[in-house]
UniProtKB/TrEMBL annotation, chain A:
Protein name, entry field: Light-independent protochlorophyllide reductase subunit N
Family: Belongs to the BchN/ChlN family.
Record organism: Aestuariivirga litoralis
Catalyzed reactions: chlorophyllide a + oxidized 2[4Fe-4S]-[ferredoxin] + 2 ADP + 2 phosphate = protochlorophyllide a + reduced 2[4Fe-4S]-[ferredoxin] + 2 ATP + 2 H2O
GO terms, molecular function: 4 iron, 4 sulfur cluster binding; ATP binding; metal ion binding; oxidoreductase activity, acting on iron-sulfur proteins as donors; oxidoreductase activity, acting on the CH-CH group of donors, iron-sulfur protein as acceptor
Pfam families membership: Oxidored_nitro (PF00148)
From TrEMBL, chain B:
Biological source species: Aestuariivirga litoralis
Physiological role: Component of the dark-operative protochlorophyllide reductase (DPOR) that uses Mg-ATP and reduced ferredoxin to reduce ring D of protochlorophyllide (Pchlide) to form chlorophyllide a (Chlide). This reaction is light-independent. The NB-protein (BchN-BchB) is the catalytic component of the complex.
UniProt-listed GO biological process terms: light-independent bacteriochlorophyll biosynthetic process; photosynthesis, dark reaction
Residue ranges of every copy of the Light-independent protochlorophyllide reductase subunit B-like C-terminal domain listed in the record: 459-503
Protein name: Light-independent protochlorophyllide reductase subunit B
Superkingdom of origin organism: Bacteria
Length: 426, 508
């Protein structure tokens, strides 16, 4: 079997990293609620914030807002600001009303926002107090999704890091062998579970689980794989519980997915033949599914604006598996520890940029004239109007892209805008 | 603290963005945390704008808070001026920056930029989007217009005030009303804020009167111009045929034109369509109306006077304009629903059981959930209500558009007649499979016949059977009405008699 992942270079210093500060055209961590609430089916996310926060989630959630969603905003008003002493009572009242309306809720997240952080509202204490009041029916947790502290997918990191201390400790000294951290689409999670089982790993926990009661057990010695690149704080929390990281690239595309399972196989001394039996068919299917897209994308130059921290693994994917040429790969934060293997696979000459000064980055993008630009929705139509072909990046977070069976779909996300431009006459 | 799932309006700085994005040559520097740039996509996606809104955000982060966020603001403002070279700038704070109390106005002033810098005070924890738009436009007009003492040279010249970015049908309303005014012989001096530059704003006082299309965004500025530039303004919003005629009369009187000029303005097909026999079935259709105050008031008048509907509910989320809505509702014998809580609106719709809902995007979903026909008449709206085709709400073409868009969700008269005639037909009822599925389609299994004697909910078996003879699309309403009728009279068992008593009662 073809396992072309090279060992990471001794240091990543040969990859130039451009660090910038200026206007950042990114979402805040509150946006994570939009997919997290679909994943944890009995959790409710209550943002304590302003009308802006409510408006943001509404704009990001689009049509989902109407389906009796499991998220809401407790809007701070001027009376709350005037009488900060009574804000606890106000919050209790709002939470009571909410839980009366939704008796099916088992887990409630109080999600901090910029306004609640700036006025130093102690949501951690509020969560502990409310947890006592509503125990054992509802567990109340807290994390911050504020823009001043988190960028887009970091909201998921903060949420999962808050979940880790509440994951059960197994009894009788049992050590659950493997944990996968990072919200995956249900379909990808099920596929991964089947492949692990074929490799002989039957007890694999996924964080987050689909319900509050099913959160995976973690014990000192539990090994964990990251399914997403943005889980810095979650990894730290897992390590505080004694879990041990399995360094791996991320399971995107045929090569990425195989390398990810190989890292697990190596960690558990699973023989090569068994790994191959579990993954080979998927690997071949994935390569087959990517073939037509590779034909369309090979040799094309691609520019990534920072958004989700998925940019480096995605740049690795499009370069290695689709033959594209990354010009600049922007990321809001560069977590070197988790991305070492991915950065090592980027072609020489790729510029990696961390942070953003959007005007200067747009100037660089215009000067580089890439064939495809990956960017947020605030930039996509304006760049299209300037003649660029764009792929809007949020879709890469909302769509199932992990694993073998989704590799073709992931490739299609990049090829479709190019295809469309060709069909409409260039 | 208010528990909110859905908000009809964004925060006030979104209103300010709607003004800045509408204009040319104006730049907005907004002191705001990282993440507030989400607002850009409202303009680039919902309105499909082909350029980024002219807004620079400071996007401060937690690590900046310990340091000098004021310095960050100054740098951002200076850089924005250098890059965009606007004719004027507006500066302000979003909700979080309001809490950290840097003073954008003072800081920008200290930069001594060579263009006017207009500070905005938008209290995020009290006010909302429309107020923010109105206040921003007013501050821009106040800062740039020099009060005038003399009369304008051309008594027939006017300004059109109010259209903004992200406004519901503002693009086409403006085209429709501009054409109408020009046909009347009125000259348009400046349109603002849409496509106006700060230099255009300075020319506003040259006209002799103002046409205020959207009171939500332009009434405050209009009143200031009335006081300071001797420019009277229109008070009638030309949505609907009657309102358009009244508007024309008002403009004619402000411009010193006679009735002949007004006659040139045009005509609508709505009056004839509404009189044609196919529209007879519209008579007395029970309609619920909710939206911003301007569109809700206009819709209520059209519904009653021009389409012959019965308005059974009227409300708005615009608290600033609650009074005229309350008065209009009172004239209809109703109590206005003034709320920004969509759950209250949903409860009201469920209670009233209207035959048509006219509202915003949110009412569209409420109506979908409850199974009522619906048309959108007001912001907030989604991308499909920024259509490619010409579709104004104002003027005579606007009335045509309104007739079509309100009547389509209802069944056309002939269709309704046929459904009644063949309601017992074996292949024309709710259990018959759709005909386009062809011979392969299987019919769903027949439900088990109701057991003899009283059934659940107090229905006698024969009454339940009779109920099934009522066309499926009104059966739910008949069931609810009958049950309410029975409950109000303490009737334990609903018989065929009760069913028809209730029918007689509710058809009065």
């Amino acid at each position: 079997m073809n396992l072309p992942f090279r060992a990471p270079p001794a240091s990543c210093n040969d990859i130039p990293v451009l660090r910038e500060r200026g206007q950042r055209e990114v979402f805040c961590g509150l946006t994570g609620i939009v997919w997290l609430h679909r994943k944890i089916q009995d959790a409710f996310f209550l943002v304590v914030g302003s009308r802006t926060c409510a408006h943001l989630i509404q704009s990001a959630a689009g049509v989902m807002i109407f389906a009796e969603p499991r998220f809401a905003t407790a809007i701070i008003d001027e009376r709350d600001l005037a009488g900060l002493s009574e804000i606890d009572a106000e919050l209790d009242r709002v939470v009571n009303r909410l839980l009366e309306r939704r008796p099916d809720i088992k887990m409630l997240f109080l999600v901090g926002s910029c306004p609640s952080e700036v006025i130093k509202l102690d949501l951690k204490r509020a969560a502990a107090r409310l947890s006592q009041i509503h125990s054992p029916k509802v567990r109340v947790l807290n994390y911050s999704g504020s823009g001043i502290e988190t960028t887009f997918t970091q909201g998921e990191d903060a949420c999962l890091a808050a979940l880790v201390p509440f994951s059960p400790l197994p009894a009788n000294g049992y050590v659950p062998p493997l944990l996968v951290a990072g919200a995956l689409s249900d379909v990808a999670e099920d596929q991964f579970r089947r492949i692990f089982a074929e490799m002989g790993l039957t007890d694999v926990g996924f964080l987050p689980a689909r319900s509050a009661a099913a959160m995976p057990a973690i014990a000192p010695g539990t090994k964990y794989l990251l399914a997403q690149p943005f889980l810095n704080d979650t990894a730290r929390a897992l390590e505080e519980r004694g879990a041990v990281h399995i360094p791996a690239p991320f399971p995107l595309g045929a090569e990425g997915t195989t390398a990810w399972f190989k890292a697990a196989a190596d960690a558990f001394d699973i023989p090569e033949a068994k790994l191959r039996a579990a993954t080979e068919a998927g690997h071949i299917r994935a390569r087959l599914a990517m073939e037509p897209h590779r034909a369309m994308l090979e040799g094309k130059r691609i520019f990534f604006f920072p958004d989700s921290q998925l940019e480096i693994p995605l740049a690795r994917f499009v370069a290695q598996e689709l033959g594209m040429e990354p010009v600049e790969v922007g990321t809001p934060y560069l977590q070197r520890a988790h991305l070492a293997q991915e950065i090592g696979q980027l072609p020489a000459g790729t510029v990696v940029s961390e942070g953003q000064d959007v005007e200067k980055q747009l100037d660089r993008c215009r000067a580089a004239k890439p064939d495809l630009v990956v960017c947020g929705l605030g930039l996509a139509n304006p760049l299209e109007a300037e003649g660029f072909t764009t792929k809007w990046s949020i879709e890469l977070v909302f769509t199932p892209i992990h694993g073998y069976e989704q590799a073709g779909d992931l490739a299609r996300l990049f090829s479709r805008p190019m295809d469309r431009r060709t069909r409409l006459g260039g | 603290m208010q528990l909110t799932l859905w908000t009809y309006e964004g925060p006030p700085h979104i209103g300010a963005m709607r003004i800045a994005t509408a204009m040319d040559g104006l730049h907005y520097v907004l002191h705001a945390p990282q993440g507030d740039t989400y607002a850009d996509l409202l303009f680039t996606m919902i309105e499909r704008r082909n350029a980024r809104p002219p807004v620079t955000y400071t996007t401060f982060q937690a690590r900046d808070l310990g340091g000098d966020t004021a310095e960050l603001f100054k740098t951002a403002a200076a850089d924005a001026y250098e890059r965009f070279k606007p004719q004027a700038m507006i500066v302000g704070a979003s909700c979080t920056a309001e809490l950290i109390q840097d003073d954008p106005g003072g800081l920008a002033k200290a930069l001594a930029l060579p263009v006017p810098v207009i500070p905005l005070e938008l209290p995020s924890y009290q006010k909302k989007e429309n107020w923010g738009a109105s206040e921003t436009f007013y501050q821009i007009v106040r800062a740039l217009c020099v009060p005038r003492r003399d009369a304008a040279a051309n008594p027939r010249s006017c300004n059109i005030l109010g259209p903004t970015a992200l406004g519901f049908r503002h693009r086409d309303d403006l085209a429709e009303i501009s054409r109408l005014l020009e046909r009347m012989g009125v000259t348009i001096n400046v349109v603002a804020p849409l496509d106006a530059t700060p230099d255009d704003i300075r020319r506003i006082p040259e006209a002799s009167f103002n046409v205020v299309l959207y009171p939500e965004t332009a009434e405050t500025a209009g009143r200031w111009l009335e006081r300071n530039c001797k420019q009277p303004m229109t008070s009638i919003v030309p949505i609907g045929v009657s309102a358009t005629r009244d508007f024309i009369a008002q403009v004619a009187s402000l411009a010193g034109l006679d009735a002949d000029a007004a006659d040139k303005a045009g005509a609508s097909r709505l009056p004839w369509y509404s009189r044609s026999v196919d529209s007879t079935y519209l008579t007395g259709k029970r309609v619920f109306i909710f939206g911003d105050a301007t569109h809700a008031l206009a819709a209520a008048r059209i519904a009653r006077e021009e389409l012959g509907f019965e308005v059974v509910g009227l409300g708005t989320y615009s608290r600033e304009f609650a009074r005229p809505v309350r008065e209009a509702a009172a004239r209809l014998g109703l109590e206005a629903l003034i709320t920004d809580d969509y759950l209250e609106v949903e409860a009201k719709v469920a209670e009233l059981q209207p035959e048509l809902v006219l509202g915003t995007q949110m009412e569209r979903h409420i109506a979908k959930k409850l199974g009522f026909p619906c048309a959108v008449i007001s912001a907030p709206v989604h991308v499909q209500d920024f259509p490619a085709r010409y579709s104004p709400q104002m003027g005579f073409e606007g009335a045509n558009v309104i007739f079509d868009s309100w009547v389509h969700p209802l069944m056309m008269g002939l269709e309704e007649h046929l459904l009644h005639m063949f309601r017992g037909d074996f292949e024309f009822n709710d259990k018959a499979a759709a005909s386009h599925l062809g011979a392969g389609a299987t019919k769903p299994a027949e439900p088990a016949p109701p057991p003899p004697g009283p059934t659940q909910g107090g229905w006698a078996a024969e009454a339940e059977k009779e109920l099934q003879k009522i066309p499926f699309f009104v059966r739910g309403k008949a069931r609810r009405n009958t049950e309410r009728f029975a409950a109000e009279r303490g009737i334990a068992l609903i018989t065929i008699e009760t069913l028809y008593d209730a029918k007689a009662h509710y058809s009065r």
